Write the structure tokens for this entry.
Amino acid sequence: MPAPQDLTLLLASPRGFCAGVDRAIQIVEQALARYGAPVYVRHEIVHNKHVVNRLKTMGAVFVKELDECPSDRPVVFSAHGVPKRVPAEAERRQMLYVDATCPLVSKVHVEAQRHHRAGKHILLIGHEGHPEVIGTIGQLPDGAVTLIETVEDAESFTPEDPENLAFVTQTTLSVDDTAAIVDALQARFPGMAAPHKEDICYATTNRQAAVKAIGAKADLVLVVGAPNSSNSVRLVEVAKRAGARAAYLVQSADDVDWTWFGGALRVGISAGASAPEELVEDLMAAIAERHPVTVEEVRVAEEDVIFKLPKEVA
């Protein structure tokens, strides 16, 4: 039987948790410490079942809507943001709620509201049905926002007033795809108002840049993340575009099909912004059990962002 193939593991950096995810998880942990169990959480606090399951063991109860929560227990809103009707309902029921919306998502909400007050129709570049998109649209009255998902949408959209448009974006999109959509919109509507600072968050941008760097020289790329995590799914797409022969999304080492490694010499590894580092370590250990490995870190940026906790749990 031939000896296992030596592998070089190209470890993308930055990877894994971002400041917004870290803050959201801390909020649930601190709420449990301060108020005791159970603490209710509307939707997955972040898109990762390992994180969610750990918090469940600590006493968090995950629900889809507020009507599943008793009014005498705290409720936490997820990092993706919520429509305005949700905190309004919590206040009506006199509930203690803690908003774990990522501050960079809140920035998009503020931008959209500012443009709406200025009389502009908002174009939201994002993915239909994503919680962040639902939350952003829910900041404004019905009809105030049009969702643009593709370049084709940008080219076919017909506004009532082409001179009064503004765009915002979901924070977890593909940088390259979004640039193409923005270019298409700006070619048609050169007076369209843009964000003061790009809406795609620093963490999404950095993780995509790192995966581009490893994808360009990897035979295989594995991204640790959940299938409903937009930023994780985008990383797989970025790896393929960068030149990786194959790229797959895995929730943990248990999802790996070891036939993927046939003929691979250089394997890239990254993780979406809601994936714990321990899952990356488990994946690398599982690979090292089967192959002699050399690890090469590919770092494209340093991250030192920290977001304060809300007063309810600080």
Remarks:
- The chain has a mean pLDDT of 96.
- The first strand starts at residue 7 and ends at 13.
